Amino acid sequence: MNIITSAFLSLLPKRYRVLFTSYDVPCEGAVVSGILQALLSFFVLFRDYHAFFDMRMAQLPTDLLVKVAEKGGDPAIAAFGPMFLIEYLFRVTTILFLFWTIEGVVRAIAAIGAKEILPDLLLCVVALLHAKVAAENHKRKLGSPLSDEVQFDPTRDRLQISSCRPKPWIQLTTISHEGQFYEMVSE
């Protein structure tokens, strides 16, 4: 698998990644993808701030700038920079690109340090919602659940539970029935 393909596939959650390839995606693709994501997002932030600053300075009346310069000089005009920066930081697009910059750095560090491929967080949210909808549809197709059927063995020290749906039980699960506790032996 080439580096460009693995860079794009590393953005996807595992649920969607398997639709495109049955192979594991190499960590190098996640490194490239994370670095590119961070650099491109930072570049857009930097370029957009200059355009935003120029636009905001152009919106200020000229006579206001002249009065500010007469009273305070260059430092007074330079004070507009931090004010515009604060305004810029609270824009939705700025927050989104800051998020993508930080996410790209985290993804690259995870791929370099832990050899772990972290997908894009927004795509993970989509995958979680997709899984939740699919689970609800599956439950709806199964119909309403029936009661579990409980049977004792003749010595009453073992319990067999028949269920119409799978239970999330493991070997460490303890089951309480009629005031007695039972350990999970087998499925």
Describe the model:
This protein has 187 residues and is mainly alpha-helical. The protein folds into 2 domains: 3-142, no CATH class; 149-183, no CATH class. It is 61% helix and 9% strand. The protein contains 8 helices and 4 strands. It has helices at 3-9, 14-17, 27-59, 62-72, 74-78, 80-89, 92-113, 121-142, and strands at 149-152, 159-162, 174-177, 180-183. Helix 1 packs across helix 3 (27-59), helix 3 crosses helix 6 and helix 3 runs antiparallel to helix 7 (92-113). It is elongated, with a radius of gyration of 29 Å. The chain starts with a helix and ends with a strand.
At a glance:
The protein has 187 residues and is mainly alpha-helical. It has helices spanning 3-9, 14-17, 27-59, 62-72, 74-78, 80-89, 92-113, 121-142, and strands at 149-152, 159-162, 174-177, 180-183. Strand 1 and strand 2 form a beta hairpin.
Give short descriptive properties of this protein.
two-stranded antiparallel ribbon; 8 helices; mainly alpha; 2 domains; 187 residues; 61% helix
Query: Any idea how many domains?
Result: 2
Shape field: elongated
Question: What percent of the residues sit in helical stretches (DSSP H or I)?
Answer: 55-70%
First CA to last CA: what distance? 40 Å
Q: What's the story with the biggest beta sheet?
A: 2 strands, antiparallel
Instruction: Count the beta strands.
Output: 4
Strand content: 5-15%
Count of discrete alpha- or pi-helical segments spanning 4 or more residues: 8
Q: Quote the average pLDDT.
A: 88
